[in-house]
TrEMBL record:
Pfam family, one: DUF3425
Species of the source: Fusarium duplospermum
Protein name: Uncharacterized protein
Length: 173
């Protein structure tokens, strides 16, 4: 049969998140290949004007932090401006390693163990189509300060499956 097996779920989640990030990169006017190169620098840190695609999603519009602080372009593709800013600022302050976040989000989980992940259920430029795993929230939830959209979307998806809502304490939410 052509039905996916439960054992294939980690692969499908990883494939889907990588496709979503590539689609957002294309909508933002840069080649998705730069997301895979360790030495890449965000196009928003390049000198000179950057030409945006006509279908540029509002949620992906670069912030002043993205323009001011040098960072890897893979951080530009999340449709959560405050989350992007929080990650970029945390990396710049040496509070975290974005390679570790990248590994959790975008690398294949061959062990099949539960780990931090993001899931994209719809249009990757639309925040309501994203979901964070419980493990992601436990490990990286501190990066969601001032960014209630991801938790709200996560809870909508959980409710669709009949699962309990998740709560995350953020004084700014």
């Amino acid at each position: 049969m052509n039905t996916p097996r439960l054992s294939q779920l980690p692969f499908l989640i990883t494939l889907n998140i990588n496709i979503a990030m590539a689609k957002n990169a294309i909508q933002m006017g840069f080649k998705p290949e730069i997301l895979c190169l360790e030495e890449s620098i965000s196009p928003f840190n390049w000198l000179g004007p950057l030409q945006y695609a006509p279908t540029y999603p509002q949620n992906l519009e670069p912030t002043s932090v993205q323009h001011q602080i040098m960072h890897h372009p893979w951080l530009d593709v999340f449709p959560f401006p405050r989350f992007r800013d929080n990650v970029i600022q945390a990396v710049a302050a040496n509070l975290m390693d974005d390679d570790e976040l990248c590994a959790d989000v975008a690398e294949m989980n061959y062990e099949g163990t539960a780990r931090p992940s993001l899931i994209v259920w719809g249009d990757p430029g639309d925040p309501s189509g994203w979901e964070a795993s419980i493990y992601f929230l436990h490990k990286w939830g501190w990066l969601l300060q001032g960014c209630p959209e991801l938790l709200e979307a996560t809870n909508r998806w959980r409710e669709c499956r009949g699962e309990k809502r998740l709560f995350w304490h953020d004084p700014q939410m």
